C-alpha cells in the first residue's frame, strides 16, 4: 500500500507514469518506508485519523469507480466502438484451464482485507447483526466493481495489447484514456489520482492498525513479549506498529534488488495474490471452529 501511495503521488505531480524512470529502486524502497513511518506518527498523534481517512478514502474511491462505469456506458451509448475486439458475449467467456484458475488468487486478493475489520467488531453498536451485513455489502460492492470495472477496461483498452506496466499504472491509464476520449484532457486522471492517494492512505492506515491489533489481540498476549503488546494513550499498539514497519521495510529493501519499479510492484502484488488465499483459509477455518462451539462462543465475535 505504501508503494501504491507513492505511485499515486507521482501521477499527481507528473501527470504521467514517468516516475518509474526518474526514481531508483533504492529510493523507491526508502520513500515507501518513510510513508509507513509517517502514518505511524499520524495515527499515534492524531485522534480519529483512521476513521476519517477510511470514510473519505473509501467513499471517494467507490464514487469515482461508479463514475467510470457510468461514463463507459455513456461512451458506448454514443455509438463508439470498444478498443477490444471482438467485443461479444463469447469473448467474455474464459477458457477454464489451469492458468485461469490460478488467477482466482487475485480475485480472493480483491476481497482480502475484509477480515481486517474484525478487531473493530466490538466497537460497533450491534456487531452481531451489523458485521454480517457489512460483509455482505462489501462482497456485493467488490463483485460489482470487479465485473463492471473489467467491462469498462475492455472498452478503453485493447485487451490483446496491454501495457507492460498495467498492474502498476493501469488504473491511471484508464482514466487518462477516458479523459482523452471525452476531450477533457487529464481532468479525470487528476481526479482519480487524488482519490487514489487518499484511498491508499486509508487502506494503509487500516491495514497497519487492524493487522497489528489482530496479531496482538487479547488471545495472544499470553504468548508475546509484554513490550510488544504495549498500547499508547489512544489504545494503539504502537510497538506493534513499529514491528510491522520493520518487516515491511525489510521486504522493500530486498525488493530493491529487482530490475525496476514495475518489477517490484508486480512482485509484491503477486506475492500478495499468493499469500492472501492462505490467510483467508486460516481465517475461515477459525470461523468454522468458532461456529462449531456455540456453547463456548455464544454472542461475541472472537478471533483465535
From TrEMBL:
- Give the UniProt subcellular location, in the record's own words: Cell membrane
**What membrane topology does the annotation report for this chain?**
Multi-pass membrane protein
Q: Does the keyword Nuclease apply?
A: no
> Record's Pfam families?
AA_permease_2
Q: Where are the transmembrane segments?
A: 28-46, 52-77, 98-114, 134-159, 171-192, 236-256, 268-290
Q: Which Gene3D superfamilies match?
A: Amino acid/polyamine transporter I (1.20.1740.10)
Return the InterPro entries for the record.
AA/rel_permease1, APC_superfamily
Q: Which GO terms describe its molecular function?
A: transmembrane transporter activity
Q: Which UniProt keywords apply?
A: Cell membrane, Membrane, Transmembrane, Transmembrane helix, Transport
**Cellular component GO terms held in the UniProt record:** plasma membrane
Q: What is this protein called?
A: Apc family amino acid-polyamine-organocation transporter
Supply the source organism's classification.
Bacteria, Bacillati, Bacillota, Bacilli, Lactobacillales
Amino acid at each position: 500500500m505504501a508503494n501504491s501511495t507513492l505511485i499515486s503521488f507521482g501521477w499527481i505531480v507528473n501527470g504521467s507514469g514517468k516516475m518509474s524512470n526518474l526514481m531508483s529502486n533504492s529510493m523507491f524502497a526508502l520513500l515507501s518506508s518513510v510513508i509507513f513511518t509517517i502514518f505511524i506518527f499520524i495515527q499515534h498523534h492524531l485522534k480519529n485519523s483512521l476513521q476519517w481517512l477510511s470514510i473519505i478514502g473509501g467513499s471517494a474511491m467507490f464514487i469515482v469507480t461508479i463514475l467510470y462505469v457510468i461514463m463507459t456506458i455513456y461512451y458506448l451509448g454514443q455509438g463508439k466502438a470498444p478498443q477490444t475486439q471482438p467485443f461479444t458475449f463469447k469473448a467474455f467467456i474464459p477458457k477454464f484451464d489451469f492458468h485461469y484458475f490460478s488467477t482466482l488468487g487475485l480475485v480472493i486478493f480483491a476481497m482480502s482485507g475484509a477480515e481486517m475489520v474484525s478487531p473493530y467488531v466490538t466497537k460497533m453498536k450491534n456487531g452481531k447483526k451489523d458485521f454480517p451485513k457489512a460483509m455482505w455489502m462489501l462482497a456485493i460492492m467488490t463483485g460489482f466493481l470487479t465485473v463492471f470495472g473489467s467491462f469498462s477496461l475492455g472498452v478503453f483498452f485493447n485487451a490483446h495489447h496491454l501495457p507492460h506496466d498495467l498492474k502498476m499504472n493501469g488504473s491511471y491509464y484508464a482514466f487518462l484514456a477516458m479523459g482523452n476520449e471525452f476531450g477533457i484532457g487529464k481532468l479525470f486522471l487528476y481526479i482519480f489520482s487524488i482519490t487514489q492517494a487518499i484511498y491508499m492512505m486509508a487502506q494503509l492506515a487500516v491495514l497497519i492498525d487492524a493487522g497489528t491489533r489482530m496479531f496482538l489481540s487479547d488471545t495472544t498476549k499470553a504468548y508475546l513479549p509484554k513490550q510488544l503488546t504495549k498500547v499508547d494513550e489512544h489504545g494503539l499498539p504502537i510497538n506493534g506498529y513499529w514491528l510491522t514497519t520493520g518487516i515491511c521495510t525489510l521486504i522493500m529493501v530486498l525488493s530493491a534488488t529487482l530490475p525496476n519499479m514495475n518489477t517490484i510492484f508486480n512482485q509484491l502484488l503477486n506475492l500478495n495474490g499468493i499469500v492472501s488465499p492462505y490467510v483467508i483459509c486460516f481465517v475461515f477455518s477459525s470461523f468454522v471452529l468458532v461456529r462449531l462451539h456455540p456453547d463456548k462462543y455464544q454472542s461475541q465475535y472472537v478471533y483465535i
